[in-house]
Amino acid sequence: MILEPFSDDEKFTKKEREEISKNRQNVIEELGKISKDTDNSLTFEEFLEHVNINEGEYIKMIRSKLKKAKVFLKRAPNEIRINAYNSMIMSLHRANMDIQFILDPYSCLMYCVDYINKSENGMSKLLREALNELKKGNSTVKERLRVIANKILNSSEISAQEAVYHIL
């Protein structure tokens, strides 16, 4: 389900805002309790009944805090601490995944740029340190390459394949 923030035309009275805030606090507390109980198997509908709100009030509560449109997946209440996933992809992929739904071109661009640059954080400083170490001693080209490769492998948050690509 894609939810959007309320428009400027949709105003709430003070009483409505207080009710939404009270509902939100109650839902957060109950979800906190449920997430710690791994044996809990409440469905979403049972959870709404448990906290005495209907689906419309729940959606209103979520929309009141949104700044931009966002995708929400229907999940069991005890799955709130699990990253977004698609059960079909999960069964085929059989590995860790972090699916992020992107609804506008700017967010897509920012996600791609952040992903590309994530492994480069601190890489310049790391290479400067490695070069300073290499300048101090007399070492062969092979030893120098090994020093740089080890620096990158031991200090980077990238896969071995990405590290090899950077080294080459």
Descriptive account of the structure:
With 168 residues, this protein is an all-alpha fold. The chain has two domains: 2-82, no CATH class; 119-167, no CATH class. It has helices at 14-36, 44-50, 55-63, 87-93, 105-118, 123-136, 141-155, 160-167, and strands spanning 2-3, 70-71. The longest helix has 23 residues, at 14-36. The protein is elongated and about 75 Å long.
Put the structure in a nutshell.
This protein has eight helices and two strands; from the N terminus they run βαααβααααα.
Write the layout of secondary structure elements.
Layout: E1 2-3, H1 14-36, H2 44-50, H3 55-63, E2 70-71, H4 87-93, H5 105-118, H6 123-136, H7 141-155, H8 160-167
Antiparallel strand pairs: 1-2
InterPro entries: PIF1_helicase
Order of strands in the sheet with most strands: 1-2
Number of strands: 2
Tally of structural domains:
2
Q: Name the average pLDDT.
A: 80
Radius of gyration: 24 Å
Assembly state (oligomeric): single chain
> What is the structural class?
mainly alpha
| Count of runs of 4 or more consecutive helical residues | 8
Percent of residues in helices comes to: 55-70%
Most strands sheet: 2 strands, antiparallel
Which range does the strand content fall in?
under 5%
The shape, in one word, is: elongated
